[in-house]
Amino acid sequence: MPALCATPDSSLPCSAATDDASSKRLSWGKIVQKLTDFSNHSLHSDDEHFRSVFSHSGSDSVDSVSLSESDFLYDPVEETLCSEVVDQIEQSLTEAKDSALRCSKLLIPDQLMEHIGQELLHLAASEPCGLRGALINLCVEQSDTCQSVEQIAVDPDLVPTFQLTLVLRLESGGLWPMIQDLFAPRSHSAPILRHALRLNTGFRVIKKKLYSSEELVIEEC
């Protein structure tokens, strides 16, 4: 005869009651485990979705900020003015070959003029009037001396806010000293007074603010 369980309902066998309790505990354990698994899966999915959305939106935000900043920094009026100033600098150098530089021919690299234009825009970006407020002193370094070529007021009707001194260098190394006479024009009526000169692509620029006592800014380009 099966043993009776010491429970309020003593009519049930101990084994039946024990099996029923174990079954309930197992069922609840499975339910809890499923709920835990479902919760972890939902959190993982939400986290992946959040990361994807955040990464995508962040990328768009960075791109939009970069584009807006580049659009903001680009000034077509300033670019046009800079191009005109560079042309004026090149013309002044060409005219100086017969006076200040005293050479038969002056060769000016395109790369030099491009770098000068970039530096002018860079140094004028923080000025209240931009490039219009620049007073440019143009010089050419020869041996141990610095020959002044021209002074250019970008906007003669405006009081200058800053002064730029461009110190250009002559090409003195490499193959140039041996072939420079080949670029000098020859005339049957007059002898060559001086050989041709070629400017180096490197230069020095000195910036001085005219409305404050800040120190000079010297850049080697």
Key terms:
about 220 residues; alpha/beta; 6-stranded mixed beta sheet; 4 helices; elongated
Mean pLDDT: 74
How big is the Rg? 41 Å
Q: Got a strand count?
A: 6
- Helix-strand pattern: HHEHEEEHEE
- Poorly predicted spans: 1-19, 56-71
Largest sheet: 6 strands, mixed
Question: Given the C-alpha coordinates, what overall shape results?
Answer: elongated
Strand content: 15-25%
Alpha-carbon distance between the termini?
Answer: 108 Å
In terms of structural class, how would the helical and strand content be classed? alpha/beta
Helix content: 40-55%
Regarding quaternary structure, how should these chains be classified? Answer: single chain
Q: What is the tally of helical segments?
A: 4
Characterise this structure:
This protein has helices at residues 14-73, 76-96, 110-124, 176-179, and strands at 106-107, 134-142, 145-153, 162-170, 197-209, 217-220. It is an alpha/beta fold. A hairpin with a 2-residue loop joins strand 2 and strand 3 (145-153). The longest helix is centred in the N-terminal third of the chain and has 60 residues, at 14-73. Mean pLDDT is 74; it is low at 1-19 and 56-71. It is found in: Cytoplasm; Mitochondrion. This is DNA damage-inducible transcript 4 protein.
In short:
The protein has 221 residues and is of the alpha/beta class. Helices cover 45% and strands 21% of the residues. Helix 2 (76-96) packs across helix 3 (110-124).
